[in-house]
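Hello, quick one for you while I still have it in my head. Could you read through the record and tell me how the tokens relate to the sequence? No rush at all, and the record is pasted right below.
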Amino acid sequence: MANKVNNFTIFLNYFTPIGRLANKEIKNMRSGLSPNAVYQKRLSSDTIILQHDKTWKKSIQSTTVLLGSDGSKNVTLREKKFFENGFELLSIIKKSFCGMKKNSEKQVLYNTKTGKIEEKATKIYSLDGPSILTVKSTGNRESHFPVTKLAGSIHPAVAKKEILKNGDTIYIESYPHS
């Protein structure tokens, strides 16, 4: 069960190395204009999970930080934007700050009127490895291509374009390991 972070939680965190690291993250999450609470969950494997949500009129942003006992830190940022014309844009960014794991970004444009996904973009990359950007645009869509930031960054001269039988278009842009 996640507990709302208060002064007692911060005091208890001072007694473990992972807790002191969590206190630094809590301080970063609390800084800024968002008065929303930070929640903490301590797992049996001496891992701490922190959750912080920010809500605005047309968007919701959620930050989840997983702090491992080995000093690893995984951050997941989720943002959901609502548009007046019946669309929702969901963005998920996952980053790892320990080891050579791959980082990823995903953006999905959802049409609330039809209940279908119109555009889906995924980018997988690491500092020392390849970068692959895949964009799928559905056929007979109501919105104009591209809507997501990732799809807008695709380079038409480098990307491979494939049109499926149902009218969906897939773009793949790949940069090999350097």
Q: What stands out?
A: The radius of gyration is 20 Å.
